[in-house]
Amino acid sequence: MPTDYLLPGGGTSINSLPKVSLHDHLDGGLRPQTIIELADAIGIDVPETDSTALATWFADQADSGSLVEYLKTFDVTTAVMQTTEGLERVAREFVQDLAADGVIYGEIRWAPEQHLARGLTLDQAVEAVQAGIEAGIDDVASGTGNGIRIGQLVTAMRHANRGLEIAELAVRHRDRGVAGFDIAGAELGFPARNHLSAFDYLAKEFLPVTVHAGEADGIDSIRGALFDGRALRLGHGVRLAEDISIEREDDDNTYVTLGPVAQWVRDREIALELSPSSNLQTGAIAAWGDELVDHPFDLLYQLDFRVTVNTDNRLMSRTTISRELALLADAFSYDLDDFEVFQLNAASAAFLPLEDRDELIEQISAGFDAA
């Protein structure tokens, strides 16, 4: 059972609040016991054969202060996600775990090109994940009577050269579970422009795009995501704060100047997929400090950027959206009204038709009104 987090002072269960998950990696959300069982079935070794010890290993390895080192933990998870059975099980459990945390809409991002080592084609991999997602949705409906909606974000690895191929894959499956496109992986040195042909194609096909940017690289990377990638959301985007100059502060106010990139992102209401715990682990906020209270989240929120709260990788960060919200409440004294803003921001930025976003917003508002 997931830990039940309570809103400080009010006693409200954060877990029971309706939530939207926009930035959650499939290969970063496996159950440790599932990794052990899948590894045993295909005859590969894992660092620990006890689920508790394996969970600790992932958290310790990920807490490196480096995105490059953090990403090495995925060698273990992707190794057990190379078969139809493995992908289906992981996706099914992923949906179950989201629902257990109160998520009513989630977008699951993953890179099919990393799951072909045992003979699957790109299309077979996407179909396996979709089968798992649909089974998970059915499990949630039959087990709790509640609904959850899930979309795939098909991702290309930014250091590889398969961007256009993966973009075409995403478009092929847009009516069979795929909601949008992403690029992920090592950010520094691999700009969005390297995948310009993919982004041109996606723009012509009107498939929405989010781009990892502003995590391991700065403003130029964000500029590339917006200009070359036509990104409607920024994956993390935390280093957008580098384009905000604090001129002076007094007891009541902070006076700032926004640079052109920050101004554009705020004025266009481009959502920031912020992942507080992950940003600490990868060193994304090192310029401001090494504790959650140092995170630019609150600065961005107070300046009316469209901030959203995400987990990035629940296994590596040993987290859930409920836990991330609890941590933010402790760091910045947020209350139920703030939590509702974060969820409404995410719902507004979801890669859904307008009518479905409006319905999602109504669900969130009703859930918070009842809290």
UniProtKB/TrEMBL annotation:
Originating species: Orlajensenia leifsoniae
Record has DNA-binding as a keyword: no
Span of domain Adenosine deaminase: 18-365
GO cellular component entries: cytosol
Name of the top EC class for this enzyme: hydrolase
Matching InterPro entries: A_deaminase_dom, Ado/ade_deaminase, Metal_Hydrolase
Swiss-Prot/TrEMBL keywords: Hydrolase, Metal-binding, Zinc
EC number: 3.5.4.4
Family designation: Belongs to the metallo-dependent hydrolases superfamily. Adenosine and AMP deaminases family.
Named cofactor requirement(s): Zn(2+)
Biological process according to GO: adenosine catabolic process; hypoxanthine salvage; inosine biosynthetic process
Name of the protein in its database record: adenosine deaminase
Domain of life from the UniProt record: Bacteria
GO MF: adenosine deaminase activity; metal ion binding
